[in-house]
Amino acid sequence: MLQRKKNAVLVDGVFLNGPIADARAGEKFVEDACKIIMEEVIQKAADVTEKVCEWQPPEKLKKLLDLEMRDTGEPHQQLLQLCQDVIRYSVKTNHPRFFNQLYAGIDYYSLVARFITEALNPSVYTYEVSPVFLLVEEAVLKKMIEFIGWNEGDGIFNPGGSVSNMYAMNLARYKYCPEIKEKGLSGLPRLVLFTSEECHYSMKKAASFLGIGTQNVYFIKTDERGKMIPEELEKQVQRARKEGAAPFLVSATAGTTVLGAFDPLDKIADICEKYGLWLHVDASWGGSALMSRKHRKLLHGIHRADSVAWNPHKMLMAGIQCCALLVKNNSDLLKKCYSANASYLFQQDKFYDVSYDTGDKSIQCSRRPDAFKFWMTWKALGTTGLEERENRALALARYLVDEIKKREGFRLLLEVAPVIKERMMKKGSMMLGYQPHLGKVNFFRQVVISPQVRREDMDFLLDEIDLLGRDL
């Protein structure tokens, strides 16, 4: 201590005598915490005897967890116990019987990729600070563009499909009236966009956020399966034009959130071409069917889209978040729309090819290397392995439908869903989402993604619902 004080420099009352952090203690904490993660999360991921969740109501959970931040730091063992508690009371989304959302399961290769990026803590805006991850993103985007069926294109990874949809809406508006970037909304006609009544709620949010207005989102009727009706779309386009509005965008959906419906993209594209409208396809959920030769027909006509949102963190399990916006236009439209030309970051006189400084295509500055997660999984499994995941998940869904038809006591729509959901959560046996739809009562929505899911888990799901709701 005397030697350290002797050599120290005092500035503003602070001794500047070397690093303040204890590297050895930090390394030990990382090592011990990684053991906990391995034992309590990874090794238990496929164990159906483990609970999906240890449910606690909010006020009780606040008492069980030590949430207070104090003036002084806490000791090593206490921090490790906090790690244990966080894992214990969190929902195990990697459990084979977690069916609650449009993501599930554990992909070990994506997980390692996340460990690497968390440790390196990169930001993907310029080649000089993130050379590997920018090249990875370029390679992944190029491959995804090929699967859509475009000869060329552009794209960017974003923090969520909702953001990708917002990007696409703004890009379509910029293409329609480029002067909006500098002059703003004043003087513009009333812009109108069209999307199905089964679309993701992010379309409405994007219209609000961008100043288009939610009243200028025309929701198109769907058929009994939840698909947009093209004839209804054309009627609404004609209506908007008669009203003196300016139609500029149609957003189709490939894999709706509740029913999993795929809009008829070819027929919608015909209407967009006829009226000069930008066609965006929200394939956040269903885009992964493009990886399957058997099921890619669900997205027939997607190659005619101007932009596509596709989330590999859903069916392809790349880890939240991993979401791409893909654009057919290869004339730097993304960059023209979003660039701000920050001179301290995107200098044009750098010693390397500055076309690799892709960050100005994004509304973000700091941006995570999300493509790396998908790239690592794709490298490990290959296209064939990803296709097998897709085919198996859809086969399990078909099996469940067939089993439901055979069982007495099961109907497609039943009002007891909330009670059964409460019981399964408190028991921790599985997690299954429910919702109402178009005036119908609450019903369960079964989602199959994880490769850890077995045929036996489908049977268990029906048995458990029967058991939990037998007295209702």
TrEMBL record:
<dbReference type="InterPro" id="IPR015421">
    <property type="entry name" value="PyrdxlP-dep_Trfase_major"/>
</dbReference>
<dbReference type="GO" id="GO:0019752">
    <property type="term" value="P:carboxylic acid metabolic process"/>
</dbReference>
<dbReference type="GO" id="GO:0016831">
    <property type="term" value="F:carboxy-lyase activity"/>
</dbReference>
<dbReference type="Pfam" id="PF00282">
    <property type="entry name" value="Pyridoxal_deC"/>
</dbReference>
<dbReference type="GO" id="GO:0030170">
    <property type="term" value="F:pyridoxal phosphate binding"/>
</dbReference>
<dbReference type="InterPro" id="IPR002129">
    <property type="entry name" value="PyrdxlP-dep_de-COase"/>
</dbReference>
<dbReference type="InterPro" id="IPR021115">
    <property type="entry name" value="Pyridoxal-P_BS"/>
</dbReference>
<keyword id="KW-0456">Lyase</keyword>
<keyword id="KW-0663">Pyridoxal phosphate</keyword>
<comment type="subunit">
    <text>Homodimer.</text>
</comment>
<dbReference type="InterPro" id="IPR015424">
    <property type="entry name" value="PyrdxlP-dep_Trfase"/>
</dbReference>
<feature type="modified residue" description="N6-(pyridoxal phosphate)lysine">
    <location>
        <position position="314"/>
    </location>
</feature>
<protein>
    <submittedName>
        <fullName>Acidic amino acid decarboxylase GADL1 isoform X3</fullName>
    </submittedName>
</protein>
<keyword id="KW-0210">Decarboxylase</keyword>
<dbReference type="GO" id="GO:0005737">
    <property type="term" value="C:cytoplasm"/>
</dbReference>
<comment type="similarity">
    <text>Belongs to the group II decarboxylase family.</text>
</comment>
